[in-house]
Amino acid sequence: MKTKLGLLYGGKSAEHNVSMQTALAVIKALDLEKFDIHPIYITEEGKWVKGQQLSAPVENVRELAFPEAGTISPAAIASPAVEGTDAGGFDVIFPLLHGPNGEDGTVQGMLELLNLPYVGNGVLASSAGMDKVIMKNIFAQAGLPQVKYTWFIRSEWDKNREDAYSRVEDQIGYPCFVKPANLGSSVGISKCTSREELENAFVEAFQFDRKIIIEEGVTAREIEIGVLGNDDPECSVAGEIIPKKAFYDYKAKYEDGDTGLVIPAEITEEESKSLQEMAVAAFKSLDCSGLVRADFFLTKDGKIYINEVNTMPGFTPFSMFPLLWKHTGVEYPQLIERLVQLAIERHAEKQRIKHTM
Predict the structure, then answer these.
(1) CB-based contacts of 153, cutoff 8 Å, min separation 6
(2) Residue ranges of the alpha helices (H) in 95-194?
């Protein structure tokens, strides 16, 4: 029997277009002999639109944005199956959402309330992994080495901007990176080497979030590892990102592919082991499930710092996560099927929890 799979994509987020590209790639890779694919599009205004079941792969993202005449209530996806129609009765929901209102635990919480199996991380891991400050604080508690960092909320900055800039210069120094705390895909990120650049970076980052994080810039290689599983996660081979620009920005990730990817990364066996151990430790510290991509810095003298984890890495043609698993021996369609199976297993495990005395 086929798996009835609801694909949830789009979203009210600055990463809406990234989600659309991810959905397109996943749809092209799904086996229509194994899955009944039901697209569920969330507009940039936050409206939910359910499309017809797909009978063939789509060729471009324009086909994934439907007229709003079919707007539904989010709770409608939990309706029972109706014989002879494609309404309700999903076996699994696959949230292909990035950024706020999708990757941050909000949609995951709704799916938990609806008691629907879904791919990827749960509420806690999603929300903690989305907020870089909370994530780094948890990593610090877990004893994972990190570069120096500090953070501000907008109201604090508005009250005394000079003090904020001075604090960064005293505690972090230059070069440093300024980022929105709750956003991914390198949106709103700036590299700063001077006070003028720092001031401009604060303004830029605060356009996308009320909280920003400032991190120490280090001279290091950027190494990434894919983690897959639930209670017993496994790691992919390591890959290295070699940006041709100042850093791995949005355009390089999703538009022009203007970056070098080396998979597997040219690292020692000892470094590989340390990276994998740290990736699993980060996965478990956030209580992750399904998948994450763990990002690290590796310095010339062999020091390893964890940078962050992404709880819903993209599946675009330029995305690192599926490429890492491909080089580990797991092809893209197999990877998707494994994620769906992990979602079903995790949901079954949760059904064992008692809710009455």
Answers:
(1) 210, 211
(2) 106-113, 123-130, 132-141, 154-159, 161-171
pTM (predicted TM-score)? 0.89
Q: How far is CA 222 from the centre of its chain?
A: 17
123 or 83, which is more confident: 123
Do 191 and 217 contact (CB within 8 A), yes or no? Answer: yes
Bridge partners of residue 201, in order along the sequence: none
**What value does the mean pLDDT take over residues 97-123?**
93
* Whether 153 contacts 300, CB under 8 Å: no
**Mean pLDDT of the 124-147 span:** 97
Q: Indicate whether 90 and 104 sit together in one domain.
A: yes
Q: Are residues 155 and 113 in the same domain?
A: no
- Residue 176's domain comprises 148-216
Task: Give residues with Cβ within 8 angstroms of 93, minimum separation 6.
Answer: 5, 6, 8, 77, 111, 116, 117, 118, 119
Band of residue 246 on the pLDDT scale cut at 50, 70, 90? low
Domain boundary among 66, 101, 118: 118
Domain with residue 325: its CATH number is 3.30.470.20
Whether the per-residue pLDDT at 247 is higher than 70: the answer is no
Which tokens hold the place of 100? 């706020």
Sheet with 176-180, strands from edge to edge, namely 149-153, 211-216, 176-180, 190-192
Q: What does the block give as tokens for 194?
A: 């001077």
Q: Which of 66-80, 163-177, 238-252, 300-314 has the lowest mean pLDDT?
A: 238-252
Task: Flag whether 140 is in a domain.
Answer: no
| Tally of domains in the chain | 3
Same structural domain, 108 and 13: yes
Return the H-helix or E-strand segment holding 292: strand 290-298
Stretch 112-138: mean pLDDT, rounded? 96
- Identify the band that residue 254 occupies on the pLDDT scale cut at 50, 70 and 90: very low
How much is the pLDDT for 69?
59
| Sign of the alpha-carbon torsion through 289, 295, 301, 302 | positive
Residue 27 covered by a domain: yes
Q: Which of 187, 216, 245 is the last residue of a domain?
A: 216
- Same domain, yes or no: 195 and 262: no
Q: Which two tokens stand for residue 258?
A: 């203007």
